Amino acid sequence: MATFRKLKSGNWQARVSKDGEEFSIGTYRTRKEAEIEAAKVEERIYYGQTLNDRNMLFSEVVEIWMKHKRSNLKDSTFEQVETIVRLHILPYFGNKRIMKMRRSEIKDWIQSYVDMKDENGEPKYSYGSCTKYLSVIKSIIHYAVYEIEILEKNLADKLKVSIKDSTKKKEAVKYHTLVELNKLLDFMKEYKHQRFEGYPIYYTLMYFLSRSGLRISEALALRWSDLKGDRITIERQTSRNNNNALKVTTLKNTSSYRTIRLEKDAVEVLEEFKAIQENLILKSLTFHQNKDGIIFQNYLGNYLTPSTVRESIENYCIKAEVEYKGTHGFRHTHAILLLESGASLLFVSKRLGHKTIKTTADTYLSITQKIEEDELLKFASYTKRETESAQNRHDDSIPSQ
Fold first, then answer.
1. Which CDD domains match (predicted)?
2. How much of the chain is in helix, strand and coil states, percent to nearest 5?
3. What domains, with CATH codes, occur in the chain?
């Protein structure tokens, strides 16, 4: 039979018995809540279920959870999670006994990140970062409840990151207009590579990015074997390991794995680039072939790195007198030009490899004035026809004199 005791704090302590020994299962705000939780524990005892060590430190739970996650996450994602745990969670909760942790502590902890400012008085941590931190601790406590069964409920359940200013202007998406893009591509088509002036790697890369919408990490990992006719398959990306060395890894999520179709001109640009590359490999002693057969290799046969590409494209933009929008700007440009040309939101979402169509809508629909103008023209055209039809019907109903 469970026993209950009201503490000086006003909370209620619940204790249950097992094998003749009574022990506390925690404290609760009301007696009713304590009775409910005690009943759950007594049911587990009755059916012979294991009651694990409820005095475990939070850091001990994290260690078990991390071993579980190691086998379920790809390396790059696990590294991000490990960093969050090491820098942002364990310093606060590592030495606490998980049974002693309270929902209010977690709420205060995440709020401290929301409130933290940098030297300029701006938020030090973005809403996205705070959401990730809270998601990780929710996962740890969920594991403690349902896998190692040392908690009765997830005390972080339904906690959310507060948004102090929901009207704050969204960070602008950088993209090239069609005029800017064409000006840059025209410049690059005539630009001569310093070492191999007939090797138009950056023109081809920029053209391809603007016509495919791939992330730069996806494009730099592409192989010629991924291109079949007018279709190209995206199934890997480049990234950096802990030693800052380039490596080829799996993609961001399942929706990132995709096969997209390229327009005729884009295929022709790639085929022409391939012929130039093969000719240099055969005839030049200083031009080497990449062992993986990648598309965008440098003359040494190595992968291009995103940092090198960023620096090079920024330099070319300055020379072409076109504002630099970053390598991701080509992806944004592709999406916006597709929408402006009349492509459906679903088509654009799948082509970009977005997890949901909402991501695409939230990112692009409010950006370009042309989309709004086109949609209003469609509405005006539709309503105008209806008005004219009604007028014609009215005119027909008037008898001729």
1. INT_ICEBs1_C_like
2. 55, 10, 35
3. 3-44 (no CATH), 58-146 (1.10.150), 178-364 (1.10.443.10)
